[in-house]
C-alpha cells in the first residue's frame, strides 16, 4: 500500500487532517493509502526514508513550514522536508498549509517546492479543506489570496533585489553573524560588505547598518 504523509506538529490539526483524508478515502475521492503522521523534522526524514526503502510510493503530502526540530538547526523545517519529498518522489502532490507570513519564506517555498496546494491558515476556511485536497489530487492548483499575489507579482518589492540580496536580508533578520552569512551565500566578508552597501543604495537607506536595512525591508518594502 502506498502512503500519504502528514507533517504537522499541532496534534489537533494533525488529527483533523487525518479525519478528512480518511473520509475522502472512504468516498473514493482519494486512493486507499496508508496515512502516516509526523510531528518533528527528525521523524519526517526517517519516515520518508522508510517509505523509500519499502519501495512504496508517496502519493500525497500535507506539510507545515514550522515543525518541531528539538532545538536543532533552523534549516530543519517544512521547506527542507518538501524539497526532499520533491526530489525522491517527484510525482507526489504536495500541499503546504502554514501560518508563516514572511514573504521571503513564502516565495522560497513556492520557488523550491512548487506545491500544488499552498494555503495560509489565517486565510483558509477549514470547512473547505476537504474540497481543496480533492482539487489538488485532481491536478488543480489551490492557493490562498496572499500566495496567489506572490505567484503573480513575485515577492512584491519595488526595488531590484535578486535572490542573493533577499537571502542576505533574511539571514540578517535572524541575527546570524556576518561571517556565517558570508559562508551561506558564498561571498567573502568584503564581498558581503559590498553587497550591504549596494542594498543600502537600492533600499534608500542612510547607511549599510544592519538595523537600518532591516527596518526598511520590514516597514517600507514588507519583505520580512
In words, what does this structure look like?
- This protein has 224 residues and is an alpha/beta fold.
- 50% of the residues lie in helices and 12% in strands.
- It contains ten helices and six strands, in the order βαβαβαβαβαβααααα.
- It has helices at 11-26, 41-53, 78-88, 103-113, 129-137, 145-153, 163-173, 178-184, 189-203, 210-220, and strands at 3-7, 34-38, 58-63, 93-98, 117-120, 142-143.
- It has a six-stranded parallel sheet with strand order 2-1-3-4-5-6, sandwiched between helices.
- Strand 4, helix 4 (103-113) and strand 5 (117-120) form a beta-alpha-beta unit.
- Helix 3 runs parallel beside helix 4.
- The protein is elongated and about 60 Å long.
- The termini are far apart.
- The mean pLDDT is 89.
